[in-house]
Specification:
The structure holds two protein chains of two kinds. Chain A is an all-alpha fold. Chain A has 13 helices and four strands. Chain A has one domain. In chain A, helix 1 crosses helix 11 and helix 9 crosses helix 11. Chain A starts with a helix and ends in a 9-residue tail after the last helix. In chain B, strands 1-2 form a two-stranded antiparallel sheet. In chain B, strands 3-8 form a two-stranded antiparallel sheet. A two-stranded antiparallel sheet of chain B has the order 4-7. The interface between A and B is large, with 75 and 76 residues.
């Protein structure tokens, strides 16, 4: 096992962390958009309450990913920045509007119109951003991004708009929605809000079904539009893909049975397996067909520096994160407010 | 607009916006920590009110700073892919370390902002330490990367290939101690005088209560301690540039021709087409004396560099003088304020002229940050990595940079307008009522009416 693979594994863990934490924040915004019925206001309120304390911390995974990518794999960062300029810029706009909208609508009590406008911006940007990130991931997997001699070649700027990319983008949104809905069932249960619990349970099941359908559609399209990935799925990643499907079924079952905490664990695992199988299926390429893990990696000295600082960082971060989540996401009911 | 200019304009706009939030993100948590510490130590409800109010402001500013910081990390690649491909392996390390520091800051900010009711008062206060310490460390890491762009070390170029990379050496490049100190002090100066300005305006409007006086005093203490150190640090920076980046120094001081006994040009316009400084106040031998302590020492001028390698002295010289002038104004206000305070037996000075001075020193301190940043960036041109990579060679080849610049400019306008509106609203909202009840602080937050 060489250093480049170890570094990639660390970065991939950050991708998974961003997906299960930051992804749930995106999903929260999606449910803000779909809040309906007589309890729409309470649904939105639950989303705000759940996201508030962990919001900034969840977002930082993305920044860690970006800086980790350009430190460890500068060629990949440069090639992706050029070839996926449009979807990345749009996703960035989404991230910015969403981040700003969240604070603006949280901290503008009373000003109901401004609050409402930023609330809509928040939910719309929450749906668009994961879509663009998913579509960009599919564009990478398509194997159409060429780079030779260490430079991005003139490319097809519409790679992220193929049927396969659109499907994966939509799947990313629905997966975020599932994550958020399942977390929110646990939050609602802790707050003893039974109507909210029921609402988010139904939402989780619907979004889960949508995700499964989109996943199946993606698999159908993959042989044509991402053959390299498809070969990987049938080959070295097959066990991981099967595990992913089984875990998904498990999550659905525990949701049906009302075992929300178990469902939360399983959906996190499901997301990790999904992203893990994608990574395995695409080995040894970072950006197929030209950019591989070894030809894009920085020299070992840089990778060692990055890994050592990650280890030192983790020593500080792990207990801090534990404290954050224990303080705000433990099973102890929140002290009565109002 | 050419793609290069559009890329530079977009990066410049983003940094000009971000630097305000980043500076407040370094300074404000320290004020918060001090105020809460004073509240617990002195059992004083007013200090607690200040800590609460600053925490609310921090929440909004930090969130906007986080998104504008995200924009920058993407833009490094989206706008300057060649630069990142060249330098990622060399100078990515401080960015990654900054990421960790920022992570810690975000975690403890979450605990601090939402933990008032869930943590003991002491535990809550302790949560403020990692916030300001991480803020300070983040600033150090990020600025060390910028320092590297000015004095690039920690690698070799052999036959056009980068080898012998040493990330630690790159991070600890010769400029790092000078630039990081100057930027971190700038954060404390600007946050101190900026916050003091808010309370000075409140006092000017007749809100002469203990709350506003205490806010003014603490903020002025921070600003007034930092500003003399900052001026000493600025002097050290200029002397350092004499050897590390003489072209930048020449542009800053408007020196067109290498000469012995160079005069100091204060103000004026350094016109690169004629090679003269117009309308300046000229102090004979001043520059030579300031730089070397010898009125006849030699100062290298822009003519020592080929026209392709010269920065444009017009904006650099004007920005430099604007920064220095703002700094000295803040120093003057700080000295007068504290002299009056101690002379009057520790009573907050409330003369209208002085309060106006404080109110002016706040915005000027932020202006100084912007100008100082322009000095270092424009003074490094035409290089993005000094002497190694030209800015024009680093820009992206992707299409549509003009549109991207337009879109982001609009976003910044919307963000700035909403943010200012929100902060003004926060400033006008009734203060949280804090009372001491058997050594415990009881807080009645302002009613947050949640309407649909």
């Amino acid at each position: 096992m060489n250093l480049a693979y170890i570094t990639l594994a660390v970065l991939w863990l950050a991708v998974i962390a961003y997906a299960v934490l930051g992804g749930a924040d995106f999903g929260g915004g999606v449910w803000d958009l779909f809040a309906s019925g007589p309890h729409a206001k309470q649904q939105r309120h639950l989303v705000d309450e759940a996201i508030g304390p962990v919001w900034e911390a969840n977002h930082v995974w993305l920044i860690f990913l970006i800086v980790g990518l350009f430190t460890a794999f500068p060629l990949a960062f440069s090639v992706l920045s050029i070839t996926l300029f449009v979807p990345f810029t749009l996703a960035l706009v989404g991230i910015v509007l969403r981040g700003a909208a969240f604070v603006f609508h949280l901290h503008a009590p009373g000003a109901s119109r401004t609050r409402a406008i930023w609330g809509r911006v928040f939910s719309a940007a929450s749906a668009i951003t994961p879509f663009l990130l998913g579509a960009s991931a599919a564009a990478i997997a398509s194997g159409q991004i060429h780079a030779s001699g260490g430079h991005a070649q003139t490319v097809d700027w519409t790679l992220w708009m193929t049927p396969f990319a659109l499907t994966v983008g939509a799947m990313a949104v629905s997966l975020c929605a599932v994550l958020a809905a399942i977390y929110l069932t646990v939050e609602a249960q802790q707050a003893r809000e039974l109507e909210l619990l029921a609402a988010f349970r139904v939402r989780a099941i619907i979004a889960g079904a949508v995700t499964a359908v989109l996943g199946a559609l993606g698999l159908v399209l993959a042989p044509f539009q991402a053959p390299l990935l498809w070969n990987g799925v049938l080959g070295k990643a097959l066990p991981a893909v099967i595990v992913t499907m089984l875990v998904g079924l498990g999550a659905a079952a525990s949701l049906f049975l009302g075992r929300y905490r178990l469902a939360r664990v399983l959906i996190v695992l499901e997301t990790a397996c999904l992203l893990g199988s994608w990574a395995v299926a695409q080995l040894p390429y970072l950006i197929p067909p030209d950019v591989t893990i070894s030809n894009a990696a920085s020299p070992d000295v840089t990778l060692i520096a990055l890994l050592v600082s990650t280890a030192i960082g983790a020593v500080f971060l792990a207990p801090s994160l534990w404290l954050l989540f224990r303080t705000f996401k433990s099973s102890k009911p929140a002290p009565a407010r109002k | 607009m050419s793609d290069l200019l559009a890329a530079r304009a977009q990066m410049g706009t983003s940094l000009a916006f971000h630097i305000i939030f980043a500076s407040l993100g370094v300074g404000l948590p320290l004020l918060m920590c001090l105020a809460e510490g004073l509240a617990l130590w002195r059992h004083d409800a007013t200090w607690m009110m200040l800590a609460r109010r600053w925490a609310k402001g921090s929440a909004i500013l930090f969130a906007i700073g986080a998104v504008s910081g995200t924009i920058l990390s993407f833009e490094l690649g989206l706008l300057w892919p060649t630069f990142m491909q060249f330098s990622g392996a060399i100078i990515g390390l401080p960015f990654a370390l900054e990421g960790f520091a920022f992570f810690l800051e975000a975690i403890f900010l979450g605990l601090y902002l939402y933990g008032w009711d869930r943590l003991s008062p002491r535990a809550h206060w302790l949560c403020s330490f990692p916030i300001w310490i991480s803020g300070l460390i983040s600033a150090w890491f990020v600025v060390s990367a910028n320092s590297w762009m000015n004095t690039p070390v920690g690698f070799e170029i052999v036959h056009g290939k980068v080898t012998g990379i040493n990330p630690l050496e790159a991070m600890l490049n010769p400029s790092t101690p000078y630039e990081t100190t100057h930027m971190i002090l700038a954060c404390y100066v600007a946050t101190g005088f900026g916050t003091a300005a808010v309370y000075a305006v409140a006092l000017l409007r007749g809100k002469r209560t203990d709350y506003y006086r205490k806010g003014l005093l603490l903020a002025m203490a921070m600003g007034a301690i930092a500003i003399p150190l900052q001026i000493v640090s600025g002097d050290a920076n200029a002397r350092f540039l004499e050897t590390s980046q003489p072209a930048k120094l020449a542009a800053m001081e408007g020196v067109f021709h290498t000469e012995n006994g160079a005069p100091l040009e204060i103000g004026g316009l350094a016109d690169p087409t004629t090679g003269k400084v117009y309308y300046a106040l000229e102090i004979p031998y001043g520059l030579s004396f300031l730089l070397d302590g010898d009125p006849n020492s030699k100062v290298i001028g822009l003519d020592a560099f080929s026209p392709d390698d010269q920065p444009n002295p017009l904006p650099v010289h004007s920005s430099f003088d604007g920064m220095v002038a703002s700094g000295f104004f803040a120093l003057f206000v700080g000295i007068v304020f504290w002299a009056l305070y101690f002379w009057r037996k520790r009573r907050t000075p409330e003369q209208r002229v002085l309060l106006w001075g404080v109110a002016l020193a706040g915005p000027l301190s932020f202006l100084a940050i912007e100008l100082g940043w322009m000095v270092t960036e424009l003074g490094r041109q035409p290089w993005v990595i000094y002497g190694i990579l030209r800015t024009s060679d680093a820009a992206t080849t992707a299409p549509g940079i003009n549109i991207s610049f337009l879109v982001f400019s609009c976003i910044y306008v919307v963000l700035a307008v909403t943010l200012i509106w929100l902060l003004l609203r926060l400033a006008r909202s009734p203060l949280p009522k804090v009372e001491l009840d058997k050594d415990a602080f009881v807080v009645e937050e302002e009613e947050e009416s949640v309407e649909a």
